[in-house]
Amino acid sequence: MFLEEARIGARLQHANLIQVLDFIVEATPTGPTYCLVMEWVDGIDLRSILRVERELGRKLSWALVATIGLRVLRGLAAARVAHGATPT
Predict the structure, then answer these.
(1) How is the chain split into domains, by residue range?
(2) Full-prediction pTM beyond 0.85?
(3) Residues 6+ away with beta carbon under 8 Å from 39
(4) Per-residue model confidence as pLDDT tens digits over 39-64
């Protein structure tokens, strides 16, 4: 399944998806080790944003929650279309 995910990921190109740049298989004494080489996205992760907001005694704004959700859904939709599903 990992190999199939690597093939699919390498074909995906969308602003809301991380680009898979390469796929590496290394021989090790215990068997092959599989690695995906992915683009580096500079920024802050959601866990850190939530931690900072919690420390400040705030919650994320609905506008930010909606923006994050919309971008996640756009990325998932692009992946589904690339995998052969029809957009809904």
Answers:
(1) 2-82
(2) no
(3) 18, 19, 21
(4) 999 999 999 999 999 999 999 999 99
